[in-house]
Every structure is written in structure tokens, then in C-alpha cells.
Amino acid sequence: MAIFNQTHSTQDYPTTAVTIIATGNRFIGDIEVSGQLQVDGAMEGSICAQDTMTVGAKGQVNGCVKGQLVQIAGRFEGEMWCQDLTIFPGGLVSGKVHCQQMVIEPGGSFLGHRDEIAAQGHDDYSQLEPTSVLLEPIEV
């Protein structure tokens, strides 16, 4: 019985909001996400994620991305600023990447240019100025 009488503050269990663009959905425009972003559908535009941004195996992103940790298992085309980038097997990143650390797992692909950001580079990626990058529309 004692377990049901215990109370916990929200500080005991930190949570971040997760925004999901599900398979079959398409989002066109600019978005700022205070938590995590999971893209399993298609997105075109500018994305600013303060936490982790993941492009799932069937996800496609075309545009400008700013975030702390970016994980690509699907397709990304455009320009990206992030602390860490991981490209998973089957993932494709095409364009210009500005990051501190980049990992390409076997089966992942990177086509483009990478600029390394110093470790003390940018703590707040939302302050970086995006370049307007919209490439050819994504086929869904």
C-alpha cells in the first residue's frame, strides 16, 4: 500500500515533448520544437529542434535543420547545423553540414560538404541564421 501513497515531483522524472510527423504525412513550412522531433513522413522547410531530431527510415527532410543531436535513418537534403550527427545504415545526408561530431555507420551515406564546429562553438543553435534552402520537392 505504501507505494501508492508516495508522491513524486515532476523534477524526479524529466520529460521532453516529442513531436512526430508520421508516415504518410507531409509538413511544409518552418517549425521550432522545444523537445524531440521524429520525422517518419516528409518535411520541407526550416526546422529548429532544441533536443534530438530523428529522421526515420521512411522519413524525408528537405531544407534547413538546426539542433543538438541529429539522427538520420532516412533521407535529408539541405543544410544542417548541429552538435552531433549520426547517419544510420540506409540513411542519406546530401548537402552542407556544420557539426562538431559526425558518425557515419556502415551503410550510411554522406554526399556534400562538412564544416567542423569547435567544441565551444554554439550552445544555442536556434541563434544561428539559416540560409534559405529549399531544394526540389520530395516525392511521397
Protein model, in words:
The structure is a single chain. This protein has 140 residues and is mostly beta strands. The chain is globular. The protein has one helix at 2-5, and strands at 18-21, 26-28, 31-33, 36-39, 42-55, 60-72, 75-87, 92-104, 109-116. The protein has one domain (18-119). Strands 1, 2, 3, 4, 5, 6, 7, 8 and 9 form a 9-stranded parallel beta sheet that branches. Mean pLDDT is 82; it is low at 3-14 and 125-138. It is built from 1 helix and 9 strands; from the N terminus they run αβββββββββ.
Helix content: under 10%
- Note the total helix count: 1
Quaternary status of these chains?
single chain
- Whole-Å distance between the termini? 53 Å
Order of helices and strands: HEEEEEEEEE
Computed CA radius of gyration, to the nearest angstrom: 17 Å
- Overall pLDDT level: 82
What form results from the Cα inertia axes? Answer: globular
Structural class: mainly beta
State the low-pLDDT regions, or none.
Answer: 3-14, 125-138
Query: Sheet bearing the most strands, described?
Result: 9 strands, parallel
Number of domains: 1
Percentage of residues in DSSP E strands: over 45%
Per DSSP E runs of 2 or more residues, the count of β-strands stands at 9
